Structures are given as structure tokens and as C-alpha cells.
Amino acid sequence: MSQRFHVSTSPHVLSKDTTHSLMLDVILALLPATVFGVYRFGWYAGVLVIVSIATCVAAEYIWEKAMKKPLTLNDYSAVLTGLLLGLNLPVSVPIWLPIIGGAFAIIVVKQLYGGLGQNFMNPALAARCFLLLAFAGLMNDFSVDGVSSATPLAALKAGESANLLDMFFGLTPGVIGETSAALLLAGGLFLLVRKVISWEIPVIYIGTVAVFVLLFGGHGADFYYVACEICGGGLMLGAFFMATDYVTSPITFKGRVVYAVLIGVLTGVFRVFGNMAEGVSFAIIIGNILVPLIEKATLPKAFGREGK
Amino acid sequence: MSTGTGTFQGGVHPYDGKDLTKDTPCLAVLPKGEVVFPMAQQHLGAPSRPVVAVGDKVLVGQRIGEASGFISAHICSSVSGTVKAIEPRLTPSSAMVESVVIENDGQYTPAPGVGEKRDYTQMSKEEIREAIKNAGVVGMGGAGFPTHVKLTPKDDNAIEYIIANCAECEPYLTSDYRMMLEEPDRLVGGLKVIVSLFPNARGLIAIEDNKPEAIALLQEKVKGEEKLEVRVLKTKYPQGSERQIIYACTGRKINSSMLPADAGCIVDNCDTVIAVYRAVCESTPLMRRVVTVTGDAVNKPRNLIVKTGTLYSELLEYVDGFKCQPEKVLSGGPMMGVAQTSLDVPVTKISSALLCMEKDPVAQCESTHYIRCGRCVAACPSRLVPQKMYECSTRGDLEGFQKLNGMECFECGACTYVCPAKLRLTQAFKQSRQAVQAARRKAQAEAQAARAKAEAEEKAKAEAASKPAAEAEKKEGGEKA
Questions:
Q1: A43 shares contact with chain B (CB less than 8 Å)
Q2: Which CA distances in Å does B411 have to A80, B112, B337, B407?
Q3: Closest Cα of chain A to B384: distance in Å?
């Protein structure tokens, strides 16, 4: 018998999940909200999202080619970054904005720090924050077809009322992907069921925001108000799809709990005490920056070495 | 009382493949050609020393290799015949090892006394331990720790639990399961023998809950046995790991620097307990092994009762050969088994399975950079942080690796199994652990050498100092005289 067998160290079986299958799952989970955003805000919203994705993919390709690094497009992480960035733009922005944002996300936030797994801030969110600061006027213009309007949380903050049902189903102004709490929730549940994400971050994050606005929101035990705060301002998008970003959230269970509470409190502070109606992006970015410290403080004790 | 929860934190659920073989009774097979007995790599500790010479006639059960240290084990022939050679041969652990090769005469003439029935209640503890030692019984769960050493702790009174490890958490393996169904009396009998050595011990038969038939049968068998009970554990890999099964059964935790006895426990694998029964009550040395021959590349997967020393290649005939050319062949299960380069290696005391895989899943996976998903952290039964350990391993930072308690890793492979980036975590840890162990041994040797040198110097100094004194004394004495 002349046979050649493969030889490698154990284990010899591996789970089906791969980096790209997980990324694809997240992209899939975002599709309902994306399609709804395009339906709501018109074809130009779709163009913005596609340009954003194309920019991210191109930026990753060009950078890796230029730096003679292995190409990593097939892990779909650049696609996901582009999609998230696109969904975080208002529909009124010019076409060059996602190009600047996408290039910033991939090259400055991701590749300069070493690429996938090395960046310490979520690239899409960091790019959004960059755009918010650099192009504040464009990024805060939620007008549709020239009719200007305020986001529901901005309206709430200004003392006006908001329609919770509209917010839940997504009939309110806002960035392309954040308006429909219902579809984002559905996508988030899909990720939870598929075990792509674990429950700690979204549940504790949203819970913390709810408790915070209940205590400090100045509306007393007004649950309608609390529900509006939860459904609006990109909290659903942030909690299920951005705070859970693997690379920029803690890898330990305890760390995730601490991180979720922290960004929940920060979101509450920004919304209640700050002059921001939303605050999700900045809260998560600050949370991202603290992840290494949180991880250091929450390393699990090895089995049988708890006493030391 | 014990407070075990029947489970532990972490663990994974790979496809278990046990349906392929679990309902087919074992088939006892005899070797055809030469039979090979490696003197090492079938028990932990010092290699055995051959006590036969080329040309010697040997009988079934006759000792051919003698333990050569405190942690070592005897090796007995499983056939009768003539010693053909004593030479290095390839073993399932992929090493060339000094082996006694016997030409089988096909007679199976037993050595005197082998097979004699004995009543363990009439034997002293020393006699029981001696019988186990003479039979060459070692841990058959995979590590091969000599059983007589395990059963000789510092203080017999401190042992509270004897755990018969019948978890069989490794996928595809059903040899222990078949033994539970086919030889339950020997299993219970062996556990009674071991429990009889320890005045304060209870015997626990720990089985995963995916084996309800075995649980029911053994529950029936231990009825009326005051000191024995069946413990049902959650099905999860690596439930059968020593530290995890002790925790699942008793709620006690040990780490890598402790022995089970430190937690009042002794853990013996299912087939080891049966081997103890055979050794003590049937005067039969350990010279047979149940091997699960399975995988999608063989025609009729099943369990075979094999004489140790039989070559793996001979086993294929009893499963109707290969269905297709396997890409990978393992000795053992898919999580901790060893990939084989050749099938011309002998079944040893610690062989549990021959797993023939049509496709090698490892070769089909491409690794990406880690994405810090944290699945390895959730899966690790030792509560380690594999992602951070991997960072240390890949940059050769052994100090950082140890700080992260990397030496607590027992290479179960759970992290590598769940990793979506398909990183060879376990492989990296294996290398780091070996490097740390080598460095520790080196440091120890150096310290010893330094101590010896210092002692020698001191002695020389003392001598030099005492010489003039002695001379002076002599002189003085001489003067006085």
C-alpha cells in the first residue's frame, strides 16, 4: 500500500464558522434595514451605500497592493465597514462624503493599525465621528427632498413630541439605516439566534440607556419617553451591529458587561446632559478606546488558580 | 458531600460521529503477522527495559518489558511465540521507539498462572497493588499514567472519591461505551477493587448523558452497592478531562501543579478500571485494547477487541477496508488524536481509535487574522484567554505566555475548534508549552549543577581549612608526645 496521509497537530475537526461567514451573517442581518432605508429615502440612499462599500473595498485593495500585503477582501470585513458607514449617513449628503469617509475608515482607522483585528476603533464609527466633526452641517442635515426636518430625538430634546410607532417602524427622519427599530431588532435577533453575537452587549447597553434616561431624563417614570429613547438615535443599530464589533469590544464575558454598561452610561450622559440628541457613535468610540483597559481588568482567573 | 454540578464552564460540541459504531457489538480479532511492543510511548514515565532476548520463546501474559523507574510500567506479551527482534519501530506517537518484535506462533499458550481466578477480598492491599503493577495497567484514557502509582497516594485515608471516567467525550470513540454495555460487571467489579483500597472512598461511575443505555444498565448494576453510584454528566467536550470531570463530580478544582489526590480524588478511565479487575481477579495482564475503527473512509466502522502489538493495518480487514483513499488517518479521536504517516504501527495500551477521514478539514481551511471574537475564551475549559496567549506564542514571548497561565492549557483543542479565523491555536500553545518545559528543565539542571559545584567548592575549602588545622593538631600532638 503506498499511501500518503496528511499530518498536522490536533484538533483535526474545526467548526463551520469562518471569519467571512460571520461577516456575511452580519451583512445579511443588516439587509432588511438597508432595503427599507432605500425604500424610505429613495434611490440616492442606495447609491450612497454602494459608493461607501465600493470605496472601502477599493481602499483596502489599493492599500494592501501598495504595501505588498496579502489581500484580505474575501473576509468581507471591508464590505461590512462600508455598509455600516453608508447606513450612518443622512440621505442629503453629497456623493463625495462616503468616499472620504470610506477611505478614512479603511486606511486611517483600520490599515494604519495593522488591518483586520488590530484596529482599536470601529472603522465605520470612527469615520462617522470624523465626518460629524469635519462636515457637521452636512452630517446633521436630515432633510428629505429639500424638506428639512428634525430627528425624533432632537425633537424630543427640543421639548416637542415624538411618535413612538413611527420610530419603531422607521417612518421618522434620521440616517439611512437607523430609522427602523423593528427591522434592526429583527436583524439583531437573527445574529443572536445564529450565535454570531452574544446577548451581553446589546441587552445590557440598551438596558443601561433605558435606566439612565428613566433616572436622569427629567421625564420621570414616562415609559413612552424611555421607549422613544430606545427606538431612536441609532441605538438599535449601535447596540446590535456596532458595539458588538468583535475587534473593538472585549473578549471576556465580564469585560463585555463592563463595556456595555459604560457605553450605556456615556450614551445617556451625551443625550441628557450634552447637547447631542443621539450620542451613540461617540459613546461606542470612547468605549472602544477603553477596551484594552477593561480587558486587562477582567481577565478570567484560570481554572484551579482562582485563589492566586 | 460533593457538590458537583455535572458540568464545567466552557467546552464545545463538535459532531460526535458515535452513531457510526455505538450499536455494533465488539469483535475480537487476532493478529496475523508479527506483533510489536514498543518499550515506551505506551505509558507515561521511564521506558521499560526489555527482559527477553532475540530467539527467546515467550508465552501469553509473560513479561517482556520491565518498569525502569518509579513512574514506569511493565509490558506483557499478548501472544505466544518467538522474539524476532529488539529494534526501533515506528509507534502511533510518530516516534521511533525501541520495541520487542514477536513472531506469533498462533497458539496463544498462556504463561503459568495467567487467567487464574482470585478473590480480591482475600488479598491484602499490597497484593492488590502488586497485581495491578505486575499486569502493567496504565491509564487507558490516553495519557498512560501507570495505574499502580495513581493508586498509591501519600495518604489512603485522604481519598474520598474514585471516579471511573466513563465520559468518553472525544468524538467518534465508542470503545468505552461498548465496554460499559458488554462488560459492566468487570467495570463495577474493578471499581469495587479500587474502592476497597481506600477506607473513606466512594466510587463514582461518571457518564455523559448521551449514553442513556449505559447509564440505565450501570445504575441497575450498582443497586445495593453502598459505596458506588452512577453520576450523569452533561455531554460536552472535554468532559472527560481529569480536572473537568473532578469538578463536574465533586465541585473541587485542581490546577496543573496539583494531583487529583490533592482534591481527595483518583480518576481512572473506564477500560482502565476493567483492566484492574482483570489484573486482580483474573490474573490477566493488560494486553488487549478496544479500538474504534471508524470514519467516513472505512466501509463498516466498528469496535474491535485487539491484542496489543497488532499492527493498525491489520485492523482494516475487519471493517471491510477503505471505502475511499483517506486523506488523514488518526490514532485516537479528532480532538486530541495523532495524525499517522503509516498504518504499520502497533496498537498500544493507549490506542483508542483508528479514525480514517476521507477529507482533512484542517487542510481545507484558510486562516485569517484573528478578529477577537472571544469564542476561544468562552470555549476554554481552563478559563484561559487563548487569543492573548496566541499573541504571546507567535512573538515568542514565553514569559507573557506563562503570565497568562498558558501552562494550565492541556491542549484539548476546544479553542482551535471554535476559532472562525481558523488559527492553529493549540499547535502554537503546544510549542510554547514545550519550550517553557524545556527551559524549566534546563534551569533546573543548571541550578543543580551550580549547587553541586558550590558544594564541591565548599567541601574543598573546608578541607583546605581543616588541613592545616589537622596538621597543626598533629604537630601539637606530636610535640606533646
A1: no
A2: 34, 43, 11, 10
A3: 6
Cα–Cα distance for residue pair B441/B121, rounded to 1 Å: 44
- Tell me the ipTM for this assembly: 0.90
Query: How, if at all, do strands B202-208 and B161-166 pair?
Result: parallel
CATH architecture of A19-295: Orthogonal Bundle (1.10)
Q: What is the pLDDT of residues A74-108, one digit of tens each?
A: 899 999 999 999 999 999 999 999 999 999 999 99
Residue B329 β-bridge partners: B356
pLDDT of B1 reads 47
Q: How do the domains of chain A map onto residue ranges?
A: 19-295
Residue bearing cell 496504565: B138
Q: Determine, for residues B382 and A303 on separate chains, whether the beta-carbon distance falls below 8 Å.
A: yes
Euclidean distance between CA atoms B101 and B38, whole angstroms: 8
Q: Looking at the complex, does the CB of residue A302 fall below 8 Å from at least one CB of chain B?
A: yes
Q: Give the pLDDT confidence of A17-57 residue by residue, as tens digits.
A: 999 999 999 999 999 999 999 999 999 999 999 999 999 99
**Among the ranges given (A2-11, A41-50, B175-184, B422-431), the one the predictor scored with the smallest mean pLDDT:** A2-11
Which of A72, A251, A304 has the CB atom closest to B385's CB atom?
A: A251
Which grid coordinates are listed for A103?
A: 477611505
User: What would the DSSP string read from start to end of A155-220?
Assistant: HHHTT----HHHHHHT-S-SSTTTS-HHHHHHHHHHHHHTTSS-SHHHHHHHHHHHHHHHHHSSS-
Q: Does B316 touch chain A (CB under 8 A)?
A: no
Q: How confident is the model at residue A4 (pLDDT cuts 50, 70, 90)?
A: confident
Which residue type sits at B400?
G
Type of residue numbered B178 = R
Contact across the interface for B340 and A7, Cβ inside 8 Å: yes
Q: What type of residue is B277? A: Y
Look at residue A2 and tell me whether its pLDDT is greater than 60. no
Contact A263, A270 (CB under 8 A): no
For A109-122, letters b (16+ CB in 10 Å) and e give bbbeeebbbebebb
Please check whether residue B107 touches A, CB under 8 A: no
Q: Which of B242, B233, B248, B164 is nearest to B410 (CA)?
A: B242
Judged on CB neighbours under 10 Å (0-12, 13-18, 19+), B158 is middle
CA distance B243 to B267: 9
Q: Is the pLDDT of residue B61 over 60?
A: yes
3-state helix, strand, coil split of chain B in percent (to 5) is: 35, 20, 45
pLDDT(B172) > 80: yes
Order of strands, edge to edge, in the sheet holding B338-339?
A: B27-29, B302-307, B288-294, B353-357, B328-331, B338-339
